[in-house]
Amino acid sequence: MKHVLAAAAVALPLTIGSQALAHATFAETEVVQGQTARLTLRVPHGCGDEATLRVRVQIPEGLIAAQPMVKPGWTLETVKGPYEHSYELWGKTLTEGVREIIWSGELPSEYYDEFVFRARVTDRLPAGEMVYIPAIQECANGAERWIEISAADQDSHDLKDPAPGFKVIAPGEAAHKH
């Protein structure tokens, strides 16, 4: 089962920008279930020749207590909403939290940048499965919509606009990989 919060991303009234050679990705390829993960969205270019003016990241169910990193020169906004399930964290019951992170600024098309946030990886995200997080780059006259989710038997590299993702691993598995 693939976990995404893609409905909101698909519903955004944006036009698709030019097809690019590189896709938005996460620097992290794996996160550990039950821990707080630092996630780094890598944005490789703008929309054709246009600068990126806004980066939007949808936080899927199962990632909780999301906190974006402040980015000098950019405005930061979060959209909060209810979780589908309640979660216990640090002695508190969480029923809502950040569901979308929005950075607004200017990234010229010829430059690369990273957008960082952290979130707790709950057991609602099963170990061994991929988690895809829709991300959208908005430009003055278009957008790059990294929202497509690959089927179980499909390589995400075959998609035009693949959503960036990472694999969830069990806590014990992380210790054995080093």
Automatic annotation (TrEMBL):
<feature type="domain" description="YncI copper-binding">
    <location>
        <begin position="23"/>
        <end position="168"/>
    </location>
</feature>
<dbReference type="InterPro" id="IPR038507">
    <property type="entry name" value="YcnI-like_sf"/>
</dbReference>
<protein>
    <submittedName>
        <fullName>DUF1775 domain-containing protein</fullName>
    </submittedName>
</protein>
<dbReference type="Pfam" id="PF07987">
    <property type="entry name" value="DUF1775"/>
</dbReference>
<feature type="signal peptide">
    <location>
        <begin position="1"/>
        <end position="22"/>
    </location>
</feature>
<dbReference type="InterPro" id="IPR012533">
    <property type="entry name" value="YcnI-copper_dom"/>
</dbReference>
<keyword id="KW-0732">Signal</keyword>
